[in-house]
């Protein structure tokens, strides 16, 4: 880890981390759900509304020019952050779900009976349901990678079954699982997809916030991610695409600003990215995401990834020593992200979530928008603890102590107490 990365200094940038919950210091371990925001992002959004608020592109007055410059400046910053070839390859959406729906619906115009779309059983519903819908509408067939018992994509099985073949038109895979933490070999899968002239879509929602991102190295044709998981505001997402592919795809939504010429008989479309950005976009949210990217760059994504790895290794070790805890997915921090999902013997995840919250520990309980993956591991739901750049070892200790306390309570070893 970079010697410049000081987690205690980082934490002072996040006002919410000084809160107490039920008399306990807040231990926020739900960053895979949404991340907390540094003061610079909060202040940037507030300043935009206070001093520069106007619509973009439409207004020629000073405020309109300022808002447009800030909005397009954020696009350029984000393009640079992911090593895109040009800012025009960055399309703003309201979240990663909309980005993936945009991908599914526009690529769906190319699909028909006999065509196949390949995903995996570990996908978030946002990278499953849109493809189900487009396959049902077009007559294409949906197929998927299975996972091994360790929680990694079963590439050997996929090769034996010729999962990606001459009928495959689209492959859409998460870079990092939001449940298992598995880092998938998307570059290798992209090579397999491109070998049969299929389009490769990557759900980067759990990858871009945590790992250095170079869209060329990832190998995909489209990459979706969201701002609120990477220190930015809610209501802002990104779909990056190769310029030549974006030029070919039809619009997703119709309305103002995505048009070239409109008559009563027909319309023509604006150039990318505006072709995909109908109506008033999430202006302040994009500006806030630009500030979040600046903050991440200041810390350094390599240093953030190293910190994530250290905390994840520590957490896997502590939880792995508890004989009543079953970790889903890889047990070692190798090709693994920071989301750790697990079950606790005799305790329902919702009950566990509430008991931990009584001690100030925030985790998530449920199927984490990945119900088929839980079915694959024969569990109805799980508890997920997910760390980020502001997480400390002491917070992982608090999680471990809370799990022991909750398990003892539900097995009758202790009475409930604060």
TrEMBL record:
<dbReference type="InterPro" id="IPR015421">
    <property type="entry name" value="PyrdxlP-dep_Trfase_major"/>
</dbReference>
<dbReference type="Pfam" id="PF00266">
    <property type="entry name" value="Aminotran_5"/>
</dbReference>
<keyword id="KW-0663">Pyridoxal phosphate</keyword>
<protein>
    <recommendedName>
        <fullName>cysteine desulfurase</fullName>
        <ecNumber>2.8.1.7</ecNumber>
    </recommendedName>
</protein>
<dbReference type="GO" id="GO:0030170">
    <property type="term" value="F:pyridoxal phosphate binding"/>
</dbReference>
<dbReference type="InterPro" id="IPR000192">
    <property type="entry name" value="Aminotrans_V_dom"/>
</dbReference>
<dbReference type="GO" id="GO:0006534">
    <property type="term" value="P:cysteine metabolic process"/>
</dbReference>
<dbReference type="GO" id="GO:0031071">
    <property type="term" value="F:cysteine desulfurase activity"/>
</dbReference>
<dbReference type="InterPro" id="IPR015422">
    <property type="entry name" value="PyrdxlP-dep_Trfase_small"/>
</dbReference>
<dbReference type="InterPro" id="IPR015424">
    <property type="entry name" value="PyrdxlP-dep_Trfase"/>
</dbReference>
<dbReference type="InterPro" id="IPR010970">
    <property type="entry name" value="Cys_dSase_SufS"/>
</dbReference>
<feature type="domain" description="Aminotransferase class V">
    <location>
        <begin position="27"/>
        <end position="399"/>
    </location>
</feature>
<comment type="similarity">
    <text>Belongs to the class-V pyridoxal-phosphate-dependent aminotransferase family. Csd subfamily.</text>
</comment>
<keyword id="KW-0808">Transferase</keyword>
């Amino acid at each position: 880890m970079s010697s410049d990365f000081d987690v205690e200094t980082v934490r002072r940038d996040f006002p919410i981390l000084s809160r107490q919950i039920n008399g306990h210091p807040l231990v926020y371990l739900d960053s895979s759900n949404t991340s907390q925001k540094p003061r610079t992002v909060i202040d940037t959004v507030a300043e935009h509304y206070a001093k520069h608020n106007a619509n973009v592109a439409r207004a020629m007055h000073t405020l309109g020019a300022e808002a447009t410059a800030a909005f397009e400046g954020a696009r350029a910053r984000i393009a640079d952050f992911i090593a895109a070839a040009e800012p025009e390859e960055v399309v703003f959406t309201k979240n990663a779900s909309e980005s993936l729906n945009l991908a599914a619906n526009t690529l769906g115009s190319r699909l028909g009976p006999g065509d196949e779309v390949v995903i995996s059983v570990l996908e978030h519903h946002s990278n499953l349901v849109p493809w189900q819908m487009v396959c049902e509408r077009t007559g294409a067939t949906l197929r998927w990678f299975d996972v091994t018992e360790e929680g990694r994509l079963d590439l050997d099985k996929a090769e034996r079954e010729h999962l990606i073949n001459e009928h495959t038109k689209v492959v859409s895979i998460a870079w990092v699982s939001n449940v298992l933490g598995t880092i998938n070999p998307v570059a290798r899968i992209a090579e397999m997809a491109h070998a049969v002239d299929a389009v490769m879509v990557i759900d980067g929602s759990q990858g871009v916030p945590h790992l250095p991102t170079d869209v060329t190295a990832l190998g995909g044709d489209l990459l979706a991610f969201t701002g609120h998981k990477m220190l930015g505001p809610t209501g802002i997402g990104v779909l990056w695409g190769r310029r030549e592919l974006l030029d070919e795809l039809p619009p997703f939504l119709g309305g103002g600003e995505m048009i070239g010429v409109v008559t009563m008989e027909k319309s023509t479309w604006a150039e990318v990215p505006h072709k995909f950005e109908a109506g008033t976009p999430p202006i302040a949210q994009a500006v806030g995401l630009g500030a979040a990217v600046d903050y991440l760059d200041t810390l350094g994504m390599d240093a953030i990834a190293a910190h994530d790895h250290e905390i994840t290794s520590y957490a896997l070790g502590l939880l792995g020593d508890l004989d009543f805890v079953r970790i889903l997915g890889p047990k070692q921090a190798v090709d693994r992200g920071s989301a750790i999902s697990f079950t606790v013997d005799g305790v329902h995840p919702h009950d566990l979530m509430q008991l931990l919250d009584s001690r100030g520990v925030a985790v998530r309980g449920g199927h984490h928008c990945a119900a088929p993956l839980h079915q694959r591991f024969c569990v109805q739901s799980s508890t997920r603890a997910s760390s980020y750049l502001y997480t400390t070892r002491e917070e992982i200790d608090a999680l471990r102590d809370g799990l022991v306390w909750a398990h003892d309570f539900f097995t009758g070893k202790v009475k409930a107490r604060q």
